Amino acid sequence: MKHKVIDNFLDKEYFNSLVTLFTDENSAGNTVMPWYISPTVKVLNNMAMYTNPSVEARFFYMTHQFYNANMPKSPYYENLMPLLEKLGIRCLLRVKANLYPNTEILHEHPMHEDTDYPSSGAIFSLNTCDGYTKLQDGTKINSVANRMLLFDPSEKHCSTTTTNVPMRFNININYFQEQKNH
Fold it and tell me: Which residues contact 156 (CB under 8 A, 6 or more apart)?
């Protein structure tokens, strides 16, 4: 599957509500959306990471699981329904949000696959920054607010950090697409 980029994927009002969901703070100054630390971007042998950390292993990111293992995992899952419906999903595999913290130098994470079988993938950018998603063929898709990248997540790709904003936010969706009858 060749990738496809769609700018202004969502209407402005719904898009702004998603940004607020991910970034709004409560009275204590903490984000309302709970974020969970992942000690590495690439899945590594965790024991080896702690006993002999490589440069790659030192880069963490944060996630929020919305859907996995055939069930919703977040009380905020329903907030994503208009986004998911617009994708024409037949069978949802996983939905998670990623928060990549700012680093002094832009770091490209290791290449990986989300699935080991052909399927549909979507990476939706919630903010504009100097980070990007890089595909196996070297194509770089910049993080631009309200931009959707559609691709086959069984093909290698990677993410990056950001240097020009405090955090890079995106939503990663893995699914099977509805088949269109012509």
Answer: 111, 112, 113, 135, 136
Domain assignment present for 64 = yes
Asked if residue 12 is part of any domain, the answer here is yes
Structure token digits, residue 92: 């949802």
| Residue 66, CA atoms < 13 Å, CB-side half-sphere | 23
- Residue 118's domain is classified under what CATH number? 2.60.120.620
pTM higher than the cut 0.90: no
CA distance 122 to 171: 8
| Mean pLDDT in order along the chain per 10 residues (182 residues) | 93 95 75 82 45 55 94 96 95 96 92 93 98 97 98 95 96 87 52
Is the residue at 182 inside a domain?
no
Instruction: Count how many domains the chain has.
Output: 1
Contacts of 25 (CB under 8 A, 6+ apart): 31, 32
